[in-house]
Amino acid sequence: MNWVIVIWSMVAATCLTLAGVHGFVWIRQRQALANLMFCLTATSTAGMAACELWMMSSETTDSYGRALQWFNFTLWMMTISVVGFVHFYQGSGRDWLALLVCFLRTIAVILNFSLHPNVYYSSIDSLRHITFLRQTVTVADGTPNPLMLIGQLSLLLLAVYLVDATFRSYHRGHKKRALSVGTSIVFFVLALSLQTMLVFWDIVDAPIVSSLFFLGIVVAMGIELSNDMVRAAQLAIDLQTREYELSRERELTDAIFQSAPGMLYLHSQDGRIVRWNAQHEKITGYQSDETQELYVKDLFRKEDIPKLEQAWQLAFETGAHEVELDLIPKNGQPIRYFFTAVRVEINKNAHLVGIGIDISGQHALAIEASKQREEVAHLARIASMSELSSSLAHELNQPLSIILSNAQAAQRLMASESPDIHEVREILDDIVSADIRAADVIKRLRSILRRGEPILEPVAPSDLFSNALTLVKADLEGGNILVTRRHSVRLPLIHADRIPVEQVLVNLIKNAIDAMSENAPRERQLSLTCMPDGSSLRFSIRDNGCGFPNGIEKIFEAFHTTKVNGLGLGLTICQNIIQAHGGRLWAEANKTHGATFHFNLPCQSFIS
Amino acid sequence: MKHNHPVFLVDDEPALLKALTRLLKTEGYQPKTFTSALDFLKLPRSNEPACLILDVSMPEMTGLELQQHLLAEDSALAIIFISGNSDIPMSVRAIKAGAVDFLTKPVKDSELLEAISSGLKKAVELRDARNERQELRNRISVLTPRELEVYLLVVTGLPNKVIANQLGIGEQTIKVHRSRAMIKMGAQSLAELVLIAERLGLVGSKK
Q: What is the mean pLDDT of chain B?
C-alpha cells in the first residue's frame, strides 16, 4: 500500500471536510470571520498536501519547481488565514506584527512567481529518489535561493505574533483558549519552519511534509471552534430558558398589575403614563391608546396642578410621597383619590410607581366629621355662654331681689303714719350689703372671663402648626388653598399655653383663607414659617389675599372688622394671648399681594 | 291683725327671707320663714288654710319636689313659687300640680301681695271643699250596703225597674232604699243626689 498517497489524501480530505463545514457556517453567519479564516486555513492545508504529493511524485525538475511554486502559494494563503484567524478569534495579537507577517509572506509569494523556478531554489539541478515511508519519493537537489529567507522570516515572525497573542490572551483571562489554540499553533508553526528550513538548506534529506504540521494546526483550531459551537449551543439553550423565565416573570407582574384593586401606574419624569393597569382604564375612562397620549396632569383640575407638581417633586426628591387629590376621569365627574408614588430607576431614568385609592367615601366622612366637630364646638360655646348667663342671672338676681323687696318694704313703711325709722335704717343697711354682693358677682365674673395667667408647658413649634392645620383642614380644602410649611427640624421648644396659641394660629389661618377668597382658585397660597429670632421663635403666616383694604393701622382695635359677619374681636383676642405669653403680634403688608402676620414667642431655654 | 291665716316663706337665702318678711309685715302678715324645704316639712300640719311662698331652686330639696310631697296630703295650702331663672316648662309643671302662681325674682311687692291674697282665698276654698267632702263622706258612711248599692246605680241615671232587675229584688224595695238614701244624704232631689256623688268623685263627669 502506498502510505504516502493514503496519508496525504486523508490529510487533504480531512481538511476539505472541515473547510466545507466552517465555510458553510460563515455563509450562514457572515460575521463569523474566524470560521471563514479557518475554512481558508483548512483549504490551503488541503492544497498544500496536494502540492506535496505533486512534488513527491515529480519526474522532472520543471514539474518539481512548479509544484514548489504552488506550495509557496498555499503557504501564503495559510499564513494570511492563520493570522486572520488569530486576529478575529482571539483578537489579542499586535496588528503591526500581523501586517508585517502578511507583508513579508506576500513579498515572498510575489518573488516566488517572478523568479524561476521558484523562491526556494536559484536552480534545481537534479531530482533524486529516496525512500520515505517505505515508498520511493522524489526530492530535489539544487542551489537554495537566499531570498527564501524572507518567507522563513515571515514564518518566524508568525510564531512571534502567535506567542505574543497567546500571551496577551492568557493575561486577559482566556487562559484555556489561549493555551489550547495558541500553544498548539505555535508548536506546529515552529516545527514546520524547522522542517522546511532543514529540507531546503539540504541539511536533512527528506521531502517537504508541511501539510502534516498544518493538519495539526487545523485540528487544534477546529477543536477550539467546535468548542465554541458547543458553547454557543449551550448559550442558546440558556437564553431560551431565561427568556422563558422572564416571560413567566412578566406574566406574573402583569397579573399582579392587573389584579390590583386600585389604579396602578408608572409615570415617567416627563409626566407621561408609561404603564397602567386595567383598573386605571376603567376608572379614568381612557382606553389604552388614549392613556398613551395622556400627561398625568390631564387627569386633574387645573387649579390642583400646583399641588400635584409639588407632590410630584417631593416624590422625586425624597423617594416617596403621598397626596390626596380629585381625579377627573373622562366623564368629568371628580372622585377623591389618595395617590402614592415611589421613585424607581428604570433604564437609569427616574420613574414614579404608585397606586390610587378611591377615598371619596372617607373624604366625605372626614368633611362631615370636621363639620360636626365645628358644630359641636359652636354648640359647646353657646352652651357655656348660656350656662354662664344663667348662672350670672341667678347670682345677680338674689341680691337684686333682696334690694327690691327691702326697698319696697321701706317705701311701704315710709308711707305709713308713723314709720319705724330704726327699721328703715336696717333695711337700708341690708340694701347696701346686697348691692356690694352684686358688685362682687360682677367682679368675679370679669376675672373668669379675662382668664388669668397662661399655663405654660414646653411645646414643639411644628406640633403647633400641625394641630392648627388639622383644625382648619376642611377650610383649607374647601378654599383650595395651597399650603407650604417651612421650618427647620431642629427648632427649640417654646414655653406656651398650647391651646390658646393654637387658637391664635387657627384665627390667623382662617383670616388668611378669608382674605384669599376673592383670588382665583389657583392663586391661593398660604405659607407658614417658623424661624429663630433672637431668643424667641418667630411664626409667620403669609397669604396672597386682599391685604389691608382699610389700612393696617386699626386692625388690632376691638370691634374693627372688614368682614360682613365679623365682630372684630379675633385679632384683639389673639394679641392678648400672645402678649400674655410675653410675645408680640404684628402685621405687615406684602410687597406684592396679601398680608403677613408675625408673632414671636420666647424659647424655653430663654425662660428657664 | 287683719290676716289670720298663716303665710310661710321658704328660701335658702336668709337675706331675702328677711326682706320679704319686712315686706309682708307692712301688709299685716306674720310670715314664718324656713331656709330649707326639709325644715318646712318638719312643721306639724294643720287643716288651716295657709299660703306657702316657695323658692324653686334650693339645695337638698327643690321647691318643686316639696310641692310633690305636699300634694300627697290633702292640705289647704296655696303655693306661690318664686324663681330666679324660671323657664316655661318648669312653671307649667308647677301650675299643673296646683300652684297658685309662679313669680320671677326680683318680685314686685304688688304682684306678690296680690298672689298671696288670692292664694289665701283659694286656700279657704280648698279648706271649705275639703270640709264639705268630709261631711258628705260622713253621711255616705251611714248608708247600709244595699242602700249604697242602690244609690250608686241611681246616680248613673238608671230607672228603678232596671235597677230592680239588675239587683234581683223588687222595684218596691228599690224605692224604699232610694228614699232612705236620700234622707241620709240630706238631698232634696235626684239632681242633688247626683251632685253629691259627683263631689265625692263617685261618678265621672260626662264626657
A: 85
Chain B closest-CA separation from residue A434 CA (Å):
8
pTM across the whole model: 0.39
Distance from CA of B108 to the nearest CA of A (A): 7
CB of A10 less than 8 A from some CB of B = no
Same domain, A39 and A135: yes
C-alpha–C-alpha distance, residues A117 and A114, integer Å: 9
Nearest chain B residue to A399 by CA distance is: B16
Q: How far apart are the first and last CA of chain B?
A: 46
Among A358, A380, A412, residue at a domain's last position: A358
Residue A153's domain is classified under what CATH number? 1.20.1070
Record: fold of B142-199 = Arc Repressor Mutant, subunit A (1.10.10)
CATH number of the domain enclosing A383: 1.10.287
For residues A217-231, give the mean pLDDT: 83
Distance CA(A237)–CA(A227), nearest Å, equals: 15
Instruction: Tell me, yes or no, whether A565 and A596 share the same domain.
Output: yes
pLDDT at B81: 93
- A504, A408: one domain: no
Q: Is A478 found in the same domain as A569?
A: yes
| Phi, psi for A187 (deg, rounded to 5) | -60, -50
Residues in chain A with CB shorter than 8 Å from the CB of B22 are 405-406, 409-410, 413, 423, 427
The pLDDT of residue B34 is above 90: yes
Backbone angles phi, psi at A64, to 5 degrees: -60, -45
Do A545 and A512 touch, CB atoms closer than 8 A? Answer: yes
Mutant choice from B22, B57, B85, B114 vs A, greatest count of A C-beta within 10 A: B22
Q: pLDDT digits over A494-513, tens only? A: 888 877 788 888 888 988 98
Write the CB contacts of B193 (distance below 8 Å, at least 6 apart in sequence): B151, B154, B155, B181, B182, B185, B187
Report the topology of domain B7-136.
Rossmann fold (3.40.50)
Count of the separate structural domains present in chain A: 4
In a domain, A243, yes or no: no
Q: Give the number of other CB atoms < 10 A from CB of residue A426.
A: 15
| Domain that residue A602 falls in | 457-607
| Contact (CB, 8 A) for A42 and A11 | no
Answer whether B7-136 and B142-199 agree in fold.
no
- Cα angle B131, B137, B142; round to 5: 135
Q: Residue A47 has which C-alpha cell? A: 492544497
Q: Do B105 and A416 touch (CB under 8 A)?
A: no
With beta carbons less than 8 A apart as the criterion, state whether A312 and A269 touch. no
pLDDT at res. A47: 93
Chain B nearest CA to A505, separation (Å): 38
From the list B22, B84, B85, the residue facing A427 with the nearest CB is B22
The pLDDT > 90 percentage for chain A reads 14
pLDDT at residue A606, rounded to an integer? 41
Is residue A402 situated within a structural domain?
Answer: yes
pLDDT tens-place string over residues A29-88: 888 888 899 999 999 999 999 998 898 888 888 888 889 889 999 989 989 998 998 888
Give pLDDT tens digits for A355-405.
Answer: 888 888 877 777 777 777 666 666 655 555 555 666 677 778 888 999 999
Cell numbers standing for residue A73:
502559494
**How confident is the model over A114-166, as pLDDT tens digits?**
888 888 888 888 888 888 888 888 888 888 888 888 888 888 888 888 888 88
Start-to-end CA span in chain A (Å): 119
**Cα(A492)–Cα(A495) distance, integer angstroms:** 10
What digits encode the pLDDT tens for the residues B129-160?
Answer: 888 888 888 888 888 888 888 888 888 888 88
Q: Structural domain boundaries of chain B? A: 7-136, 142-199
